[in-house]
Amino acid sequence: MATATALINALGKQLGTPLQLQNGVCALFDGSREVVIVEIPGAGDVAILHCKLPLPADPRLHERLLRLNFDTAAMSGCWLALDQQSHVRLCAELPIEALSELTFVHWVQGFVQQTREIPTMLRMPHTAPAKPAAPRPLPVGSARPMIS
């Protein structure tokens, strides 16, 4: 199992810049744009990634956020959330014990790629609400479904 410091050092080596955790957080920016925030809390048992996505604060977007969260293939282990300022954030979490230096670097790189793809997915027109693939069974003695 790699230590938090070893993981951050491996990421810094890959990026060609020295990185360090400050109070369990390492924030990467491109100019003023947030690229990824890496958090490894003091207990050091999980690594958390999150990033503010370039999306407007729009309550009409919430349904699409929830629908996309349910699409496990599209989300690749990530989820969407709203922060205290109602900004949409992409989030991910893995146990430190599952990460080597190489897998950590690849995980962060994949996460950053997701931050580029998810806004496009959210801007696409959404489809009608999901419907069950097969008709729901009728309750015993009933001519109507219990849930419609």
UniProtKB/TrEMBL annotation:
GO annotation, biological process: protein secretion by the type III secretion system
SUPFAM superfamilies: Type III secretory system chaperone-like
Signal peptide (residue range): none
Coiled-coil segments on the chain, per record: none
Source domain of life: Bacteria
Region annotation Disordered: where it falls in the sequence: 126-148
Pfam families for this protein: CesT
Descriptive protein name: Tir chaperone protein (CesT) family protein
Organism: Pseudomonas abietaniphila
